[in-house]
Inverse folding.
């Protein structure tokens, strides 16, 4: 396909996985996506089916019941899901990237056995909670607090905008473990593994969002939430670093989610410009239309290429922060730009909910905001430049 993933250079395994993801997406996701968007329906049954196919353990090592795939192959599958519905894609992305990375890198063998294996098998859906009402971009400014209680901990505080906050089975939650009299900034934050049926875990009602309306986003109140010592991930005081490492992986997923949105808008736009006639001929024959489509296609390819390059780098070494931010920045701004052009090409129809580009346009916007705004990505990129200077 001229606008989709170029499969010629893929390995046999990658081609099989792209085919599997595309067939699943076109059969079980895309036909329902508009309705789920209208009704804000969280399709847990579909995510469970994806889990059975291995899509929730794509990069988890095989010894922990995952598929043990490389990051490019995972991104190839995720793009297919995102092209069908970005709401489903965000669950797949966060689960595979953030809680999975945290547990693979820092979990004890007991934590991996208890949580990572069922996550990889798709029996548990996991998310993470970092942001708070007063701590978004300034994530280290978070205030939720854990205090020691014998061997265990008691958590109190408020989290905001957590994907799957109301629908996940397990959340990795960042809270302060320093004390009010001896604040340690980013070093005063720890990560806890929290089953969402723990008393004191109280998700708010699903947020009423502009886009990604079929994904669950919720505030979470932590009220006297008691956890055993075994719920602490890794080292006390390292939670901010674990969150940043998770976000390095997560931002690649959001980059490819944005590519999937942009590519689908391009595919719809090409099909429309072939069919739509004005002034006695298909509008694709107008140069103004051709130039727009050409620029859209070029930007989609560039965004995908950068995301894949970052994925290759991630699998070679751990220093992927700068490239992950570059990939997310380029892809999210591409998604917003491409979907805007698609709406324009569709004209009046593009502004109507009955046509698919309106949803893609709304879904694109959040990719410039969550897992770090475009401004935060630019800060991460610029800081890496200084650190090398
Ligand atoms: N990997 C490992 N360690 C990292 C790191 C990384 N990528 N980034 C920072 N660190 C370490 C630093 O080295 C530092 O440790 P040392 O002091 O030992 O050197 C420590 O973490 C603190 O780092 P900074 O001083 O850089 O921290 P900062 O307060 O200046 O913040 C920031 C940096 C980039 C602005 C960061 O706060 C950030 O990324 N903010 C955006 C947060 C974000 O993306 N939130 C999205 C939430 S999730 C979501 O969107 C909802 C959802 O469910 C999808």
């Amino acid at each position: 396909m001229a606008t989709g993933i170029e499969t010629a250079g893929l390995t046999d395994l990658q081609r099989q996985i792209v085919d599997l993801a595309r067939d699943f997406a076109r059969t079980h996701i895309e036909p329902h996506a508009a309705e789920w968007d209208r009704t804000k329906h969280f399709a847990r049954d579909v995510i469970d089916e994806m889990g059975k196919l291995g899509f929730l353990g794509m990069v988890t090592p095989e010894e922990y019941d995952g598929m043990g795939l490389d990051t490019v192959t995972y991104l190839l599958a995720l793009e297919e899901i995102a092209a069908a519905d970005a709401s489903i894609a965000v669950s797949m992305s966060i689960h595979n990237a953030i809680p999975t990375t945290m547990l693979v890198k820092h979990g004890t063998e007991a934590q991996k056995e208890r949580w990572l294996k069922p996550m990889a098998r798709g029996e548990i859906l996991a998310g993470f909670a970092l942001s708070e009402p007063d701590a978004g971009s300034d994530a280290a400014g978070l205030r939720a607090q854990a205090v020691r209680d014998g061997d265990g901990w008691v958590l109190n505080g408020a989290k905001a905008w957590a994907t799957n906050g109301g629908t996940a089975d397990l959340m990795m939650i960042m809270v302060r473990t320093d004390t009010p009299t001896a604040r340690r900034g980013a070093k005063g934050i720890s990560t806890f593994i929290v089953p969402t049926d723990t008393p004191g875990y109280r998700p708010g009602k699903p947020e009423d969002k502009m886009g990604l309306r079929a994904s669950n986003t919720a505030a979470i109140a932590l009220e006297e939430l008691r956890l055993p010592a075994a719920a602490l991930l890794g080292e006390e005081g390292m939670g901010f670093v674990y969150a940043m490492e998770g976000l390095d992986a997560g931002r690649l997923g959001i980059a490819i989610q944005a590519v999937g949105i942009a590519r689908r808008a391009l595919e719809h736009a090409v099909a429309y410009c072939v069919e739509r006639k004005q002034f006695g001929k298909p509008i694709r024959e107008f140069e103004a239309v051709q130039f727009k489509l050409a620029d859209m296609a070029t930007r989609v390819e560039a965004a995908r290429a950068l995301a894949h390059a970052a994925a290759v780098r991630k699998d070679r070494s751990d220093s992927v922060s700068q490239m992950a931010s570059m990939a997310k920045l380029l892809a999210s701004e591409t998604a917003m730009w491409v979907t805007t052009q698609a709406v324009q090409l569709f004209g009046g129809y593009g502004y109507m909910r009955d046509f698919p580009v309106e949803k893609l346009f709304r879904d694109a916007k959040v990719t410039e905001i969550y897992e770090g705004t475009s401004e935060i990505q630019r800060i991460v990129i610029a800081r890496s430049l200084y650190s090398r200077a």
